[in-house]
Design a protein that fits this description.
single chain, about 450 residues, alpha/beta, Alpha-Beta Plaits, about 15% strand
Length: about 450
């Protein structure tokens, strides 16, 4: 096989991953299947993620630059990756074009080298006019599907532009300090000693100013901290579990929120998930942190398969959802999702919370949580649940400062009264509702 220079090799590998996504495959699965060595893997991800976030823009530009559609998915994907890098690295345009042409040598015995060179140089010549046209097209400008944009305009009329912009940004790296092993202040000192710039968001949440691999995070392997976005850290506080309580974390994999609950209180925790490989990660993560829980592999809706008949004092219903609030971490999702999927998620969510409600003790509390910003999965879902269950009471969802300052909250209706943790520079998008059983 033709050996390529490092950038050309990464461009070629990134094009293969994007071609897999456009064929309907999950990015993480395609990346795992590629089996890339560590240095190439990192370089490939640095190219593929921005190109996937900007797919709507790249697809629009290629429509203007190509006289006819290309049949090769890898060729099209190579041009998408290259266009994204041309926009992101305007000081390296000549290198990008040269290395993209070199990468094209691997495709169909090099017969596409001239086409790649011509398309990219044509973009550079017409750049100002082409980008003006892209900015006038909603999908190209906001880099999200048209249906996604329309839903956000309806669900968040005051915030939809900011949500879309955040969805196209590089995600922040936030840590949660394991309070059973170290204080937030002491861990900040350890980061400073290692030359890692960071700042505290609250007592246990720390934002790393420049993302880095977990292997370079001091004490990570020893269980001093976990990677967990700030908004996700609100769940444990809302659930308000105390020592001695029986607590269920449904849909718990890979175990971040379960671990946080155990760090906060000495509870009897059951962590439940339907996916066996993902459930195995719960035990691995808990072991690293020096924590323990009962891990069950079962569908939360089938309580006969996992429930022992003893009621729980607290339940975290972190239900499957569209993941529209964390799309910048999974940019393939916005292009693989279809609008009809949202109704499917809503049906599954309703079945899960209805089943879980039967296992909650009278007086107990359940937190309904999603990483979605779509109302059908959030406020509308909770409103319908309360309407189905006469013994369910919707409680205010107090969130400790300073996280509360980031919550966009309205109080006009039951549907709007719960906080959306909208994505911005510091955290991703989450929704929480606190329910009590009378």
């Amino acid at each position: 096989m033709l050996m390529l220079p490092p950038l050309a090799e990464a461009l070629h590998a990134a094009a293969g991953l994007i071609a897999a996504v456009l064929a309907g495959r999950n990015f993480d699965a395609a990346l795992a299947r590629a089996g890339l060595a560590a240095p190439l893997r990192a370089a490939t991800m640095d190219l593929a993620y921005p190109a996937l976030r900007a797919y709507g823009r790249g697809d629009f530009l290629l429509g203007l630059l190509l006289e006819r559609p290309v049949k090769s998915p890898e060729l099209r994907s190579l041009m998408l990756v290259s266009l994204a890098r041309l926009e992101a690295r305007p000081d390296e345009v000549h290198t990008t074009v040269d290395q993209a042409v070199t990468a094209a040598a691997r495709l169909a015995r090099g017969q596409f080298k001239g086409l790649v060179n011509g398309v990219l140089r044509n973009f550079l010549r017409r750049r100002e006019d082409l980008l003006a046209l892209a900015d006038a097209d909603p999908v190209a400008r906001w880099q999200h599907p048209a249906w996604w944009i329309a839903r956000l305009q309806r669900d968040h009329p005051a915030h939809w532009e900011a949500i879309l912009a955040a969805g196209n940004s590089h995600p922040p790296l936030c840590l949660r300090v394991n309070r059973r092993r170290v204080t937030g202040a002491d861990y900040l000192d350890q980061l400073a000693a290692a030359g890692i710039a960071a700042r505290a968001l609250d007592d246990t949440a720390i934002l790393i100013e420049k993302p880095l691999p977990v292997e370079r995070i001091p004490g990570f392997a020893a269980g001093l901290c976990s990677v967990q976005v700030w908004g996700a850290q609100a769940a444990a506080g809302l659930l308000d579990a105390h020592d001695g309580m029986r607590v269920l974390d449904a849909c718990a994999a890979p175990g971040g929120k379960a671990a946080h609950l155990l760090e906060c209180a000495a509870i009897e925790l059951t962590a439940l998930d339907a996916d066996a490989p993902r459930a195995a990660r719960i035990s691995v993560n808990l072991k690293r942190l020096g924590l323990a829980a009962k891990v069950e592999v079962a569908d939360a809706r089938d309580i006969g398969a996992w429930w022992d008949g003893r009621h729980y004092d607290r339940i975290l219903a972190d239900v499957p959802c569209s993941a529209s609030g964390v799309v910048r971490r999974h940019p393939d999702a916005k292009w693989l999702r279809r609008e009809s999927d949202i109704a499917g998620f809503a049906t599954t969510q309703a079945a899960i919370v209805d089943a879980l409600w039967r296992t909650l003790a009278p007086g107990g509390k359940m937190v309904y949580a999603t990483c979605s910003v779509f109302g059908q999965e959030n406020g509308a879902q909770v409103e319908a649940f309360v309407g189905r269950h006469a013994d369910a009471r919707l409680l205010p969802t107090p969130v400790a400062e300073p996280l509360a300052r980031s919550l966009a909250t309205t109080v006009s209706t039951t549907r709007d009264a719960q906080p959306h943790d909208l994505p911005d520079a510091e955290h991703d998008g989450f929704y929480y509702a606190l329910l009590q059983k009378d």
